[in-house]
Amino acid sequence: MTDHDDLLILRDKPFVDHVLKFEELMAQSGRAFLIGAGCSKCAGLPLTDELTENALTNNFIDETTRQIFEALKNLFNGATDANIEDYLSELIDILAIAERRKTRGAVETQITLGTSFYDADQLQNAVEQIKRGIVSIIDIKVVIDVHQSFIKAVHRPLRPGKLALNQPVDYLVLNYDTLIEDALALERLPFADGLDGGVTGWWNPLTFDRKELVARVFKLHGSINWCEFPGDPFPRRVGDRLQVIPTNDRRILIWPASTKYRETQLDPYAQLSERVRQVLRPSHGAQCVLLVCGYRFGDSHINIEIDRALRETEGRLTVIAFTSENEPSGQLKKWNEDFAVSEQVLIFAKRGFFHGTQASTATNDLPWWKFENITRLLGGER
Known about the structure:
Layout: H1 15-26, E1 31-35, H2 48-54, H3 63-75, H4 84-104, E2 111-113, E3 116-118, H5 120-138, H6 145-155, E4 157-159, E5 162-163, E6 169-173, H7 179-186, E7 191-192, E8 195-197, E9 201-203, E10 215-219, E11 222-228, E12 236-237, E13 251-254, H8 258-263, H9 268-280, E14 288-293, H10 300-312, E15 317-322, H11 330-337, E16 345-349, E17 352-355, E18 358-361, H12 371-378
Parallel strand pairs: 1-6, 1-14, 6-10, 7-10, 14-15, 15-16
Antiparallel strand pairs: 2-3, 4-5, 8-9, 9-12, 11-13, 16-17, 17-18
């Protein structure tokens, strides 16, 4: 890693005490990591807002899709931090309305967006084009030395021949990229991501139950290497050289729609959500420590799942949240001020540490919130 931040400030009290507490929690079994887009920035991949800006600047988007996308953006005028995932969710919900009307034989099946009318086929085409545009931005050559260091730090032996865990480490990944899976594979660590096979694979959630695993990767928003064949709602992974089905007929499985969550449990996202609920609800006598990094708490589905788990586990879930905000805001602020859960939530912000009524503030930036520096702390550097 290059261009290291100076961690010297973290050696001073009171911040060194908070780092020691972090290390103590990370030494426990029952560890899980919620990984957001900020963790992929160091590999050269865009943050969500950057992805939103670049989504229309590729060859996969035609003029009709461009107009639909702009109309969707206009619907969010005045919204805070609206991004491509919000637009895509809105589009998929609108598509569901058009398809329902079409299935029922309604006279009016078109949907109004802006000043134009669009039918279900045009909306479905726009969904697929936007997803292909996202993949084209993310599916680039990257250097993952930070991610490899992160995986090494998480899975490093306590002593030669003994791994620092007695149960799999769970990675709850919100990113479409495959950096965590790639790093695990490069470090030769047995893991499951829900797909069986190899370069070409199929959905088999029972892979998460295999005994030899040291890690499980739950891709909660799908993956750039997942696709859906006609008539099969479950993900496949298909090698680029294979022509088993025309490329344009493979729907890319990224970003679940709330509509689909409600309609069926025969859906990979619903199955993954149920697995995550189990992770966040350890059995009596066990603990789960969830480290959150690179995530801005902008996904209501994720926030609700964490909130419910905090309240339903009688203190068995601890959340360690790293944030680039100077102090807790939004969802983190709510938890920090809620006496029912505040003791279970530790917040490492850019300008301080916050844990219930405890607050240690700084006048200078504390570099611990960056993924690269979290990796260094996990590796024992201070």
